[in-house]
Amino acid sequence: MKVNRGGYIFKHMRQKHHNWFVRIFSYPTVVEDLLRSFVHEDFVKELDFKSLKKLDPNFFPASESSRHADVIYEISSHGQPTFIYLFFEFQSTVDWFMPLRMARYMFEFYDELRRNRKLRFFNPPFCILIYNGDPGWYAPERFSELLYKSSIPKEYIPEFRYFKIAINEIPIRDLVKLRNAASAVFYIENNGPMEINENWDELVSILKEVINKAWGKEIIQEIVNRLFQLYQIPENSKFIASIDGLGEVKNMLETRAKEWEKKVLEKGFEKGSEEGLEKGIRKGIEKVALNMITNGESDEKITLYTGLSLKQITEIRGRGKKASEDQEC
Description:
Low-confidence stretches: 1-10
Helix content: 40-55%
Number of helices: 12
Radius of gyration: 22 Å
Order of helices and strands: HHEEEHEEHHHHHHHHH
Number of strands: 5
Strand content: 5-15%
Shape: globular
Largest sheet: 5 strands, mixed
């Protein structure tokens, strides 16, 4: 059996994206901005953000059937602690049973607390799903939506609901207006490389509001590292000590964008010498698109750098998946 190298690379890239999200949301400032700006529920106004404390989710292991919480915080409201669970989702397909998987983890979490701390009552939970995939999120947000309709009264039917934040649904203009750490994170995730280059001043204006906050410089450094990751530049290539240092970062990103454009053309001309210029350029572009798909890049970014339509990218994705399945057989 042949090794599915493409699948391994995709899984590795997805893990890198996941690890970065865990790091950036380990800063209480980012989580506070997330709750204040994107969770439009009355209870947020009553939270004591000075009490915000990150817990280690590894102390509460999840089973294979559940969806492991990525970051857990404890925060007080009127002296009563509350748990904030953050789940990050990067799948290229939507998990229809997400409420079931998240609910399993939450109850396993409480069962672990019961056994280790001998509790009779639990702190209330608030579960947030942060989705960073390409398709629109269409899975149910309530467990009850997974059940067939029944004459059984609702009060006897188990219920669980998570709060969804789909990054691809947030208007860019809203992120610019908010100008905080969480909006900066979503801004770079919601824009393609070309758009970030063209609207660099927008990102800088957001980061100016972040740098003077608690952990501001560290947060900006993580955001720069994320840009390097998305542009495939070695992380920490540039240490950011102030906002002024972002000018050089922009130059590095522009250089990388030009290199990518050049590679697209070179691939096309290489193929063109063998198969005809027009056909060769098309095949070269498709090969670049397939490589970007394998590396876990979004359809939006692939469109920006290849000029292919979403329909063409979907067709290429399907061919690549079939080729990987054939290799496994």
